[in-house]
Design brief:
The chain has about 60 residues and is an alpha+beta fold. The chain contains 2 helices and 3 strands, in the order E-H-E-H-E. It is about 30% helix and about 25% strand.
């Protein structure tokens, strides 16, 4: 399993509540904030839900 770096690139204002909760569950707080996660199926599914708000890179 590798690691991935997730960075929030767009605001969650005027987004559905489930997308806001997904960003919070990923540990993202504001634009430009980055977190590292293992590339498990659960995390990749969460990223897929908010892919228009984040950028992802392999580490």
């Amino acid at each position: 399993m590798g690691k991935i770096k997730v960075t929030q690139t767009r605001s969650y204002i005027k987004r559905p509540e489930n997308q806001k909760r997904t960003l919070k569950a990923l540990g993202l707080k504001n634009i430009g904030h980055s977190v590292e996660h293992d590339d498990s199926a659960v995390v990749l599914g969460m990223i897929d839900k908010v892919k228009h708000l984040v950028s992802v890179e392999q580490l």
